[in-house]
Write a structure and sequence with these properties.
Layout: E1 48-52, H1 67-72, E2 80-82, E3 88-90, E4 93-98, E5 103-108, H2 121-132, E6 146-150, E7 155-160, H3 167-170, E8 193-195, E9 198-200, E10 223-229, E11 233-238, E12 251-256, H4 260-268, E13 274-275, H5 280-283, E14 291-304, H6 314-323, H7 326-333, E15 338-340, H8 368-371, E16 375-381, H9 386-400, E17 404-410, H10 416-420, E18 426-432, H11 440-448, H12 462-472, H13 477-493, E19 497-509
Parallel strand pairs: 1-12, 1-13, 16-17, 16-18
Antiparallel strand pairs: 2-3, 4-5, 5-7, 6-7, 8-9, 10-11, 11-12, 13-19, 14-18, 14-19, 15-19
Helix pairs in contact: 11-12, 11-13, 12-13
């Protein structure tokens, strides 16, 4: 493979850090290695053992929640990625420029798919086109219509129906990963993965229009997925022809362990090298230097069902919001590893603090007499061990205000679809607001608008939709931030969501491991330089 051309990326002033978190430099914070592309070595390092909190819930489809699993494990990549300041930086595209209001031209680097095919402009355009036809639509494309066409062997022109000043940020979303053409054929070109007791195709059997492609052996990252054992584990091998350099670890053995204490114990006993989402209650008991605190853009919130049940009444929602004391949650449940909820966007995004607006249009809370005896169902998941405890505290606070609360706790893959279908009155969830696109407007569109694809509150408010649409039309970074926080104020004014805490993630890393990525966007854990 010929060396990749080195050009200075043309990201444009419009992509100056809209979202800079309180971090500097690269994500890695150990061993002097950033783990960035190009830092791989030639030696055969030991395999990495990783305990992940969330199992695949969609058969490793790159179009839904499993996209971040593929990204964290170093399997998939998009045209761009986010750097430590929240700006778009090169990935499969080595540079790009904005041609006009609606069109961008991306120049591809010299890279190879894991099945040996070259990364061409035609392949990239086809991959992006498939994403636009997926059902449901990837969250990164919420409210956006785009077309992608090859413009030469190594250039791709991406055009949007309306001006999209943050398109390079959007293309960094894990759900817009670029896969080989073979991933989209019938039965994903017949590529199989071994599973417990039988062999299955990783993606949907018919990977035609609108269905999920098969990422197994068809991605571009430093590690290739080779074996899936249901929702229990997965095996990955090093991809030796990775454009960013051969990975130092020979492969990855990933286990999906929903119980946080079990993840911490596996790290403590040496069974695992890396454990994500270590419970704060376990962090202090880990050996010195093992618990790595990572400021994140993740907000834990109480989502109230605005479509049906008791919380369809804005006055009852206001009464619930008034009953919640977030300072107790940050101090006691999270043991100081979180800050009290301020809004949809927390202090990890330092631009939000000085621009935040007071919520607008809030209803008067229903009286205690009106609320007394109102029965509501409150649900959450236990993959993040603090959430059930948060829910229990909320149950007590709501009951003190007069509500009767029924609590339901399940594993995330068994409860999320019910929450999105409105089967609960209230839901406690943790959401990284920069996970999908890196653009704050996108998370508002997907989570709080009438057509949103991850609308846990089932909110449909025309004033909110107008505010989000207005924010999306602003190109100037400072003006966009102000418009985003005006939309946030409109959303909070509905009391559809009550921000509870802004989290700091605790990642467990064995002392022998180097080059782990401490990513505020929670998109990456391993890279070519990760080793033990």
């Amino acid at each position: 493979m010929r060396p990749a051309h080195r050009r200075r990326p043309v990201a444009g002033l419009l992509l100056a850090p809209l979202l800079a978190p309180l971090l500097t430099g690269c994500f890695a914070a150990d061993g002097g290695s950033t783990g960035a592309p190009g830092s791989g070595g030639s030696s055969d390092g030991a395999r990495l053992r990783i305990a992940l909190a969330f199992p695949p819930s969609e058969n490793f489809s790159p179009y839904g929640a499993d996209a971040t699993l593929l990204s964290r494990l170093g399997v998939t990549e998009g045209l761009t990625r986010l750097d430590g300041n929240g700006a778009a930086s090169p990935a499969l595209a080595e540079s790009w420029r904005r041609e006009n209001g609606r069109s961008w031209l991306f120049t591809l680097r010299d890279a190879t798919f894991q099945d040996g095919a070259p990364v061409t402009a035609d392949a990239v355009a086809a991959a992006l086109t498939h994403a636009t036809q997926a059902t449901p639509l990837p969250t990164a494309l919420a409210g956006v219509k785009l077309t992608a066409r090859a413009s030469g062997d190594r250039t791709v022109r991406v055009t949007t129906a309306t001006a999209d000043p943050v398109l390079p940020l959007r293309l960094a979303g894990p759900s817009l990963a670029v896969l080989s053409p073979k991933a989209y054929g019938k039965q994903a070109d017949g590529k199989k993965t071994e599973t417990a007791g039988k062999t299955e195709t990783a993606g949907k059997k018919e990977a035609g229009k609108g269905s999920a492609p098969d990422p197994v052996g068809h991605a571009t990252g430093p590690f290739t997925l080779t074996k899936v054992n249901g929702s229990a584990s997965a095996t990955l091998d090093r991809f030796d022809d990775y454009w960013g350099g051969r990975a130092q670890a020979s492969g990855i053995d990933a286990k999906f362990i929903a119980d946080g204490t079990a993840r911490a114990n596996a790290l403590r006993t040496g069974e695992e090298d890396i454990a994500e989402a270590v419970p704060v209650s376990q962090a202090a008991s880990l050996p010195k230097g093992v618990a790595r605190e990572v400021p994140t853009a993740r907000t834990t919130s109480l989502f109230l069902n605005t479509r049906s049940g008791a919380f369809a009444d804005p006055k009852v929602r206001a009464a619930a919001r008034q009953a919640v004391d977030t300072s107790v949650l940050a101090k006691n449940v999270y043991e100081g590893y979180a800050d009290p909820g301020q809004g949809v966007f927390g202090p990890a995004l330092n631009w939000a603090a000085g621009l935040r607006k007071q919520p607008t249009g809030r209803a008067e809370p229903a009286s205690a007499a009106a609320v007394k005896g109102t029965t509501v169902t409150l649900a959450t998941y236990d993959n993040r061990p603090e959430l059930p405890e948060v829910a229990q505290v909320l149950q007590q606070q709501l009951e003190k205000a007069g509500f009767t609360v029924k609590l339901t706790v399940r594993e995330s893959s068994r409860i999320e679809s019910d929450a999105l279908a409105g089967k609960f009155d209230a839901f406690v969830g943790a959401r990284n607001t920069m996970l999908d696109t890196g653009d704050p407007v996108s998370v508002l569109a997907s989570d709080y608008t009438c057509d949103g694809t991850y609308n846990l509150a089932l909110l449909c408010d025309r004033a909110v939709d107008r505010a989000v649409t207005a924010a999306d039309a602003v190109a100037d970074p400072e003006g966009r931030r102000r418009a985003v926080l005006a939309a946030e104020a409109s959303i909070l004014g509905t009391d559809a969501v009550v921000p509870l805490v802004h989290q700091r993630n605790v990642l467990g890393v064995a002392t022998a491991v180097r080059g782990v990525l401490l990513d505020p966007y929670e998109r990456a854990v391993v890279a070519p330089g990760t080793r033990r």
